[in-house]
């Protein structure tokens, strides 16, 4: 595959944006039958099961020095954010969740500067400030809240994007000697058992009383297999060939698809939402401007 070709890298980014932009509506469908914790657990378990053959095959490449970074990739990069996003979407729209996800490049740069010695320019600092102002606008514009109040559920997504920033920098700095398949399969080798153990402690009896629960399960299956396992394989392969901040720029395009599905599902998108999202995108553009 042409991982070093700019056109191929851009194609993968757009494909990931579509897959992850669609994941928010899949979460919303899954939550019609399952609790937020069950939805996240099912997502992670199915992703781990799909990757299990590759995990077993690549165990020979597992080194003790890589274990901490692989645990970061598995739990900080996927497992915990999966629970944060589904919990947040019990109270906020899927389109708003997609918009807030655009904060990932901001935190990728910030984490890189603070902990990974990433070089930056003052224009990037201005971009950080502009993007954070836009995010603050989204956080304070949740449903059933007056402007100026704080939607704590939106803050869960902000925390998730911070974790994504940590994960992307860690993979770029510590795991570039492994392939994308090796990074993904080995990191999910540890998250799968954790997801299974958690799911065994939950009560699925109420789920079976909900009409169309199999359809809602299929949405979570698509989320786990395509939106998590396949998407992370592509993302972790891409990170090895481009900068951490450029890799995180996939979230520029995610809101477009998230908003599209939100509108299709009848969600209310206001001019304030679009203005705040524009602020986030402007901030991200300034961060990446040569």
From TrEMBL:
The keyword Transmembrane helix applies. The chain crosses the membrane at residues 7-27, 39-56, 68-88, 94-115, 122-140, 152-171, 183-201, 213-235, 242-263, 269-287. The keyword Ribonucleoprotein does not apply. It is a multi-pass membrane protein. Keywords: Membrane, Transmembrane, Transmembrane helix. Pfam families: EamA. Belongs to the EamA transporter family. This is EamA family transporter. It comes from Marinifilum breve. The lineage of its organism: Bacteria, Pseudomonadati, Bacteroidota, Bacteroidia, Marinilabiliales.
